[in-house]
Design brief:
Length: 490
C-alpha cells in the first residue's frame, strides 16, 4: 500500500538531477530539447541549462561603493558623431563607453552610414577602428574612396574571430569601435555556428565589456529577420545601451533611423538621410518630403502633421475608393496600419453615412513614410470621404486629430507645434479637435492660419462640404489657391 502512494526519495532525486533545457529568449523550460520554444515560438533558442550552483561566497570588489553624488559624469559625456541627424537620434551624440546596436534590412545602407560616422570621427582627431566581417578590407576601401572616407586616423581590419578583434582593440586603442556585423563574429571557445544564439550572446557580451572597461564608444551592426525584428537572442537588445532601426524602401533614396531604445536620450526620435551613389547625406529638414506636388486640388488626398519623436513632419495621405470586385471589399494600405484603416472605414459608414460596404478602399502615404500615431486619423478619413464623393480638398489645408469608435475627435499632444510647422510651410487652414468651451465650426487665427475646431468626424466633413447636404461648408477647394511650397530630395 505504501509503495503506491508516492515516489520514493531515490525517484525524486533522479527527477531533480534530470537535465533541463531553457529558452534563451523567454526563459521557458522543458525536460527535453526541442527545436522551437513552446512559449515564444522562437526557433533554435532552446539550449541545455547550466546546473544550478551552490551559494556564492562574498568576494573582492572592483571599486568601492561611493555616494551617488560623488560619481563623476565626465566619463559619460557625449561627443558628436559627425552626422547631425544621427546625433539627434542619439540624444546629442555618441557617449564614451556606450554600446549601440544598428539593425536594418540588407542593402538599406547600414555600412555606408557607419563608414561615414567612422570617417567623420577620424577627421575630428579621434582614432577609429572599423572591423568588417562581411566584406574584405579592399571592398571597404573602395567605398571609402567613393564617399571620401579615407583618413589616417581611421583603421580598418577584416576579422571574423572574436579573439582577433579584441587584439586589434588592444593594439589600436580606438575612441570609436565599429563592428560590421555582430552576427559574423564568432568566439572559438563557444559552441555553435556564427550568428547562432549562443555565439551572438557571447560576442555581444564580450564587446560590451570591452566598451565599458576601456571607455570606447562601440557601434555594432545587427541583422534582422524576415519580419523585421532583430535577429539573435532578445538578450542582445538588453545588453546594449542604444538600439537603432535603419528603415527605407528599396525604390526610394530616403532612409530613416529610428531609436527604439536609448539610455541617453529620447525614444522614437527619427533621423532622415538621403542615400545615393556618392554616399549618405543627412536631411535636416525633411518636412516637405512626404507631400506630393499637386498644382490643382485632387480628390482623395489630405495632409496631416505627425510627430516623429519630437519633430513634427507633414505627411500626405492618399485614398482611392472603387467598386468592390468580389463579395468581400478590400482594405489595402501602404504606410498606414491596416487595422486602423478598417476601423476608420467602419466609423465613416456608421457615423457619417458613407457607404463603403461594397467598395474597395486603398490608402497610402507619400514618400514612403510610415504613420504610426493616431493623429493622422482625421486626414485619412477626409481622404477616404473625398475619394468616395469625388470632391477635392483644399491643397493648403491640414487635418489633425484622433478618431474614436463613436466618431468623436480626440485631442493630440503638441498641437501648437504641429500648427506652427504647417504655417511655416505655407499652409493656410487647419481642422483640429474642438477645444473645451469653444463653439463648433468657429474660426480663429493661429500663427497666421485659419483654424477651425470640430467635435467629431461628421462635423469635419461638413466643414469641407464632404458631409450631408444640409450643411454649409467653411472651406471649399475652389475657394483657396494652391499656394503652398513643396520640398523634395535633390
Amino acid at each position: 500500500m505504501s509503495s503506491s502512494s508516492s515516489p520514493g526519495p531515490r525517484a525524486s532525486a533522479s527527477k531533480r538531477s534530470r537535465a533541463s533545457y531553457r529558452c534563451a529568449e523567454c526563459g521557458w523550460e522543458t525536460a527535453k530539447w526541442v527545436g522551437r520554444c513552446g512559449e515564444c515560438q522562437a526557433w533554435g533558442s532552446v539550449a541545455e541549462a547550466a546546473a544550478p550552483r551552490g551559494r556564492t561566497a562574498a568576494g573582492p570588489v572592483t571599486t568601492p561603493a561611493v555616494p551617488i553624488g560623488d560619481v563623476s559624469v565626465e566619463d559619460s559625456s557625449s561627443r558628436t558623431s559627425g552626422v547631425a541627424e544621427l546625433d539627434r537620434v542619439l540624444g546629442g551624440g555618441l557617449v564614451r563607453g556606450a554600446a549601440v546596436l544598428l539593425a536594418g534590412e540588407p542593402g538599406v545602407g547600414k555600412s555606408t552610414l557607419l563608414l561615414e560616422v567612422a570617417a567623420a570621427t577620424a577627421r575630428s582627431g579621434l582614432r577609429t577602428l572599423y572591423v568588417t566581417g562581411e566584406e574584405s578590407a579592399s571592398q571597404v576601401r573602395l567605398r571609402a574612396d567613393r564617399t571620401g572616407g579615407v583618413h589616417e586616423e581611421l583603421y580598418l581590419a577584416a576579422e571574423t574571430d572574436l579573439g582577433a578583434v579584441l587584439t586589434h582593440v588592444h593594439e589600436v586603442r580606438p575612441q570609436l569601435l565599429v563592428i560590421d556585423s555582430v552576427q559574423t563574429i564568432s568566439a572559438g571557445d563557444v559552441d555553435g555556428v556564427p550568428g547562432g544564439v549562443t555565439q551572438v550572446k557571447e560576442v555581444a557580451a564580450a564587446l560590451v565589456r570591452v566598451a565599458k572597461s576601456n571607455n570606447i564608444a562601440t557601434v555594432m551592426v545587427g541583422h534582422v529577420t524576415k519580419d523585421g525584428s532583430i535577429a539573435g537572442p532578445r538578450v542582445l537588445e538588453h545588453l546594449v545601451d542604444v538600439v537603432l532601426h535603419f528603415e527605407g524602401e528599396r525604390s526610394s533614396r530616403l532612409r530613416m533611423v529610428r531609436a527604439v531604445k536609448n539610455r541617453f536620450g529620447p525614444v522614437d526620435e527619427v533621423g532622415c538621410f538621403d542615400l545615393s551613389g556618392e554616399g549618405i547625406v543627412a536631411v535636416t529638414d525633411p518636412t516637405g518630403l512626404f507631400v506630393a506636388r499637386h498644382h490643382e486640388p485632387v480628390a482623395g488626398t489630405c495632409v496631416s502633421v505627425v510627430l516623429e519623436g519630437r519633430r513634427p513632419i507633414l505627411a500626405e495621405v492618399q485614398a482611392l475608393v472603387t467598386p468592390a470586385a468580389g463579395e468581400r471589399p478590400r482594405r489595402t494600405t501602404s504606410g498606414i496600419d491596416a487595422s486602423r484603416l478598417a476601423m476608420l472605414a467602419a466609423v465613416l459608414q456608421q457615423r457619417s453615412k458613407i457607404h463603403l460596404h461594397n467598395r474597395d478602399v486603398f490608402a497610402s502615404t507619400v514618400g514612403g513614410v510610415r504613420i504610426q500615431e493616431t493623429a493622422a486619423d482625421l486626414a485619412t478619413a477626409i481622404a477616404i470621404a473625398s475619394a468616395w464623393k469625388s470632391r477635392e480638398v483644399p491643397t493648403d489645408l491640414v487635418a489633425i486629430g484622433e478618431i474614436g469608435l463613436a466618431g468623436e475627435l480626440r485631442r493630440v499632444r503638441d498641437l501648437p507645434q504641429r500648427i506652427a510647422e504647417a504655417a511655416r510651410l505655407g499652409f493656410g487652414a487647419a481642422i483640429v479637435p474642438l477645444e473645451p468651451g469653444a463653439r463648433s465650426g468657429s474660426l480663429r487665427k493661429v500663427d497666421g492660419m485659419e483654424v477651425v475646431g470640430v467635435p467629431d468626424v461628421d462635423a469635419a466633413l461638413r466643414v469641407l462640404d464632404l458631409g450631408r447636404t444640409d450643411s454649409t461648408p467653411v472651406f471649399r477647394a475652389r475657394d483657396r489657391a494652391p499656394s503652398r511650397p513643396v520640398l523634395g530630395l535633390v
